[in-house]
Amino acid sequence: MMTQPLPITSTTLLSHDAHRQADDFCQQHRNIQKAEQVYLNTLAIYAVYDYLRDRGVNPNFDQSDSWDPIFRNCLNIADLMVPAYGRLECRPLRTGDRHLIIPPETRDDRLSYIAVELDDALEQATLLGFITPAVVKSTQREAIALTHLHPIEELQSYLEEAEIKAEGRRQKAEEPTPNPSQEGDRSCLTPQLHNSVTPQLSFQNPKSKIQNSSNSPETHLKTWFTGQIDDAWQTLDKLLGIQSLALQTRSVPKADATSPPALASSGYSEMPGERLSRGKLIDLPSKTEPTALVVQIFPIESSEVLISVKLCPVGTHTHLHSDLDVQIRDDTGETVIQAQTRNTKMIDIEFSAEVGDRFSVAVRLDDSEHVEHFTV
């Protein structure tokens, strides 16, 4: 009698570091269900991390959205960034589960979805296999049967093939277009609603005035790094219930140990390589669920600063109000990036700007508008 061969899996012991990091993350959440979700997600990420490291692949925790406290608070994500390839989603299962749960917020921007089975004692993890984005997009269900799994031993060759295809797309995108200077190119800056994008904005005439449409004073971002922060901008533990003050900043890669000269003279050299976060509740006269505007900044190269603008629900709410319109405007008041909520848990917009640039963030609902103005 012939038997069906068992699928090849990979089992690894969950390290002390994995449990320590999972415990640190889950302690930031007062809700027990959310804390458990974060704990299991973190263990699954570590299991995939160790598997890839053993095979000569170097993932990066700090570039993963799951290492950002705001993303963890608002979304059910377990991504792991592999710089040479892309973003992997590491989904935890418990013993006996027959389906892999794919949360809606993870259906985009993922190279694959890896099924990680955690034993009852949380001492070891078994990588059962992976599901491709094509399978995820072909179904509207969050629960996908494990029969769709590819063997885990095929993961590395799959990643290498995907990287080759991505390189081909990048080369094609770099080919000159007939009218590269057309103003319509700005439409390419439309952000995804729960994954970050990093467009380079062009701010003209940085010394010109923005026409204020709210009573909020202009915020000078470089003073945040010297501790000069207006009381209206709160830490994330006060605003969102993210309790770890140590995670108000997030490490980012640095080219070297010193800040570039332009940044050193501009006031951005006090905390090189760190992302500083602050937020405030936004006030719209229209009836709406409580909403937080979070701004994160960190210096990058030369006189350039990376800025992340996030819109998050607060309290017991899990989604943003429908039909919220978020605009990033340059110093002339022109909208250069725009996003609108639908069934959206969070908006995240990333862009770079130069020291001295001015921009504004406008949040609109019906006839109401809240605008915050910033100088980089």
Characterize the structure shown.
- This protein is of the alpha+beta class and 376 residues long.
- It has seven helices and 17 strands.
- The chain has helices spanning 16-26, 32-53, 69-74, 133-138, 155-173, 236-240, 261-264; strands at residues 10-13, 79-82, 86-94, 99-101, 112-118, 124-131, 143-145, 219-220, 249-251, 274-281, 291-299, 304-313, 325-329, 335-340, 347-354, 358-365, 368-375.
- Strands 1-6-5-3-2 form a five-stranded mixed beta sheet. A five-stranded mixed beta sheet has the order 8-17-16-13-14, with no helix packed on it.
- It is globular and about 60 Å long.
Layout of helices and strands:
Layout: E1 10-13, H1 16-26, H2 32-53, H3 69-74, E2 79-82, E3 86-94, E4 99-101, E5 112-118, E6 124-131, H4 133-138, E7 143-145, H5 155-173, E8 219-220, H6 236-240, E9 249-251, H7 261-264, E10 274-281, E11 291-299, E12 304-313, E13 325-329, E14 335-340, E15 347-354, E16 358-365, E17 368-375
Parallel strand pairs: 3-5, 8-17
Antiparallel strand pairs: 1-6, 2-3, 4-7, 5-6, 9-10, 10-11, 11-12, 12-15, 13-14, 13-16, 16-17
Helix pairs in contact: 1-2
